[in-house]
From TrEMBL:
This is Uncharacterized protein. It comes from the Bacteria. It comes from Lampropedia puyangensis.
Length: 255
């Protein structure tokens, strides 16, 4: 059975609050009984105006955990990873909620596994795995990296900076320099840890210019590429599923 999830609406005009609740009601066959919209109290996921993004980032840098948030905006903002352009499209909103629920479920299972292992090895200092030197050559500052699964304890160790970097990568795809800015770790520390995660096949990569050139050169020479070994996700790739969902929602909304 899916874990119940709550959605909060923050800083939105009343007409958008009514619209989102209407979309929820009309999309109940996909969202219920897992999802519910609440007016106050703690929530698992949030929809907010894009004007609050900077404040959310600053709070996260100060140590406040940030929940998955979809930001509504009338203008594109490349800095915000999860943004939905106004006017609100019902199909895009529902698709984001379904994808977010799946990601949260995966993260909770990984966290539960990690906690079980940590309990078994309580009070044990775990040395962090040293980064393989040959992995660094394939690190690309133009690429964005997204965590596929939480690293085992023997890899991440007890390093607070690595824990923070990994947590950021589990929420959104980031470049190395963005990681350094958000995590407070130095650029060298971020490069080292991202390279280690790449080598351990724990990251998905949205290809930047450097990796694309390396891949092309290796393919033309007949040499199979070993790194980055994580799967490559083209930036901006639309979800493959959900076409039937979109049509059904539009029919029920009369659009």
């Amino acid at each position: 059975m899916a874990t119940p999830l709550t959605l909060g609406l923050r800083g939105l005009p009343q007409e958008e609050v009514i619209l989102i609740k209407t979309i929820f009601r009309l999309s109940s066959q996909w969202l219920s009984p897992q999802w519910s919209v609440v007016d106050d109290g703690p929530v698992d996921v949030c929809i907010a105006d894009s004007s609050s993004w900077n404040d959310d980032v600053q709070q996260e840098l100060s140590g406040v955990a940030r929940i998955p948030t979809l930001y509504l905006s009338r203008a594109s903002n490349p800095e915000i990873d999860a943004v939905l352009m106004r006017p609100i499209r019902a199909d895009a909103l529902v698709q984001w909620l379904l994808d977010t629920a799946r990601q949260l479920e995966t993260a909770r299972k990984a966290e539960k596994t990690t906690q079980t292992r940590a309990t078994t090895a309580a009070h044990t200092r775990v040395p962090a795995l040293e980064m393989p030197s040959h992995a660094e050559a394939y690190l690309d500052h133009d690429s964005r990296y997204l965590l596929r699964r939480w690293p085992p304890a023997q890899i991440i160790g007890n390093d607070p900076k690595r824990l923070r970097i990994t947590s950021l990568l589990s929420k959104q795809a980031l470049q190395v320099n963005e990681l350094s800015s958000l995590s407070g770790a130095s650029l060298d520390e971020c490069e080292e840890w991202v390279s280690t995660l790449l080598h351990s096949e724990l990251l998905d990569t949205r290809v930047g210019s450097k990796v694309a050139v390396i891949s092309t050169e290796m393919q033309s020479s007949g040499v199979p590429a070993r790194y980055p070994s994580a799967s490559v996700l083209p930036a901006g790739q639309p979800p493959k599923r959900g076409l039937g969902l979109m049509r059904a929602i539009r029919r029920r909304l009369g659009i």
